[in-house]
Amino acid sequence: MRSLPTKNRMPDRTLGEWLRYLEQLHPVDIDLGLARVRIAAENLHLLPYDLDVITVAGTNGKGSVVYSSEAILRQHGKRTGRYTSPHLLTFNERIAVNGDPVSDEQILEAFTAIEAARGDVTLTYFEFATLAAFWIFKEQQVDVAIMEVGLGGRLDAVNVVDANLAVITAIDLDHQHWLGDTVEKIAPEKAAVARYGCPAVLAEPSYPATLFATLEEIGAQALHAGEHWFWQSDAQALSLRLHGSEETLSFVVPDGLRGGNVAAAIQVCACLLGPALDERLTARSLAGLRVPARRQIIHIAGRELLLDVAHNPAAMQAMVDYLNDRPIAGQTIAALGLMADKDLASMASALATGVDGACALAIPGIDRAASPEVIWQALDDVGVAIPQGEFSAEAVWTQLLAGSSAGDRLVVCGSFHSVAGIMSLLKLELPSASDEP
Hints:
By secondary structure, this protein is of the alpha/beta class. 37% of the residues lie in helices and 16% in strands.
């Protein structure tokens, strides 16, 4: 337990100073529950929220749905707010208006307002960030706020606001300590972001029965892929038939994204836009779509570098399937960094089926990070570990380059922090979310 800092309402902190303050404000990093954040939201006059809200929950694919929905809605002339977490390089990435991260000044103004509104209630870093997003989107009068759930759904700070539309992506095991140790227990936590009488777009053909029971109890309008609307996809082509339509639409899947997540974004946008959804504009938005660190490919030093924040077994297997579907003549070498609560053995086993060798990557300054020595041992247990003496981003990148040749593929995967460490080292910039409408 960390000691609570002395409260300071001075508004002249820099963003970096604010973020350090927020890291110490609440006794624990993760404290699920809506009671505290609701007090602050009410004092900020955010409840009830008078903007359209799309809330995206699920284990994997949330970011892809958020970015895809944003791109489609922008092409249709909507002013969008995008909230995602965690960030890769700068905190500002978490809160974007019309595709652009907001300025330090806008965040500072929001933080100052929240600090004044919270009274004696302490908030976690994530709760402060979530309230800042809602506050900024209201100040900026966006047409629709697209909100990614951080952890679970029912007790996540994003769920303090009622969503007009909900999306639930694939559900798998992750964050079991907080959400439960089976998908049957986890599913109701995700489904709880839905609201009475409002559409809940289900991206996958199969879910636990507990998800449908929760949606029925809430009284949400379930739009289930394979039952109420339909999609088919391979690595490049997506075809779908939206709810209430007999027309089949066809699109090119953006590189690195999964067709089902793109399809879910199109369906939720159709719910919001109705007949105004235009196939041509939708295709244009997807053609320019790039999502940071989701199978993001960069060519550097004659090698192909793939960045992927695959940080649970299902995401790791999906990344490996992507690698195996795109064989190269050279070798594939990976670097893996993770949080300590992840199923390391399962992730190492999956990674081993898609790479020729792998090393461990340290995540400095993060208490929840797994020891790189433990990661290396798990990689060694499945026969792919590369001998290494140091685990810093600098040492690992040097080793990756030294152990590879032009034409080889390098993969940096796992935690957002591990991918961000290599991106910062190489001074890589984030790809644009989409072309300008």
